[in-house]
């Protein structure tokens, strides 16, 4: 007689549970889903009941996707500290062995005040299982190559192998690259030499910097809305401002963090889901990118470490083109102030955001495509000579602008426009964790890095004045009147002006209709 008690209980990994819930979300009947995955209705109900817990684990990536049990470690804070350190090391593609992890665990345990903790082989195996970590043995030659970098061989190997597999199922419209850059948004030309090479890890200069995340596709047809990170969560200049040409976030150092990057990723993923698109996103392995959430519509591909200078399209001229245009806007503002005899006010965050976004949207499609071709990700095609001529004209115009400002503001002769553009290229854009910072994170949690206050030790810039819709319409009419006195204004300019006028009139009409309805309701 068979013993029913000997039937082995099946355990499901986190990945399998998420697939079950995705099947339910697709509209299938629960009974059919249970049959498809070979589970009982009660097991399916238990999965759905614990759904929030599973999704939280996936979002935090705190356990490996193949993990079947979610029991916490006995020394949970040591486990979290070691995992935070491991992520930082892994992001830099530094080779680690089991013995190295065990030694680090003992060190961190001592810092946390645990004298009886033993980083045994058993603890190491459980740690690996909890986080889905695979430790591979390598020979001495492989270790040396990994530590020293593969140089041109590594780049050629990636071009010949991994990238071909990654892009095989995607068109250039659906292949994207995202990267961050730091910006000294208040930097004036005469202070260029002082800023050159500054990493800006903190201090007063942290108040003068922003970090901007940009993302574009390989065909140059789509540039995503920038994410700009400042130090002040609620700067005075953004009071009464409800629409910005970018997404704005803040933290104490104005850096990209893991939470901010993952939030941005989830928003992009949701947008792609609504559009029924699937995209490939190429990113580097900076510490903010190394613990990604569960994504449905984005396949992430990592660029080889220490090779982004030659493989990352945004680093090959796209971000530089944005900075050229941003600094040009700054120079124009300086000239306007000089010619109007007004006091030269410092640039505030609102003005910087507007200029950075305007510069980003003005980067030409041809520039984007050329940088993707330079990275070797899409084939090189014939370059339009007309495009090159237009770029040359822009360079000449900018040089004239620089020359005018240099004379008027007494810029040192040893400083040129390229120095001004690249002055903030060395800014740190993400946090590099030290042991003490890992410990602080265990005590207070990662979200304790709050945004700073704009008013700490500096004079507040005036808040944005409230402009009525009638004043805005009047300004458009004045602008149209001014343009009518100019010679050779392109038709596209009048078209854009008409679009603005139409938008404002529609908004005014809706406001009047809403106010009439409110008046009627109040009289009843």
From TrEMBL:
- The source's domain of life comes to Eukaryota
Compartments, as annotated in UniProt: Nucleus
Q: Which residues form the HTH CENPB-type domain?
A: 66-137
Q: Mind listing where the DNA-binding region sits, in residue ranges?
A: 30-50
> Which Gene3D superfamilies does this UniProt record tie to the protein?
Homeodomain-like
> Record keywords: DNA-binding included?
yes
Q: What is this protein called?
A: Tigger transposable element-derived protein 6
Q: Which organism is it from?
A: Galeopterus variegatus (Malayan flying lemur)
Q: Which gene encodes it?
A: TIGD6
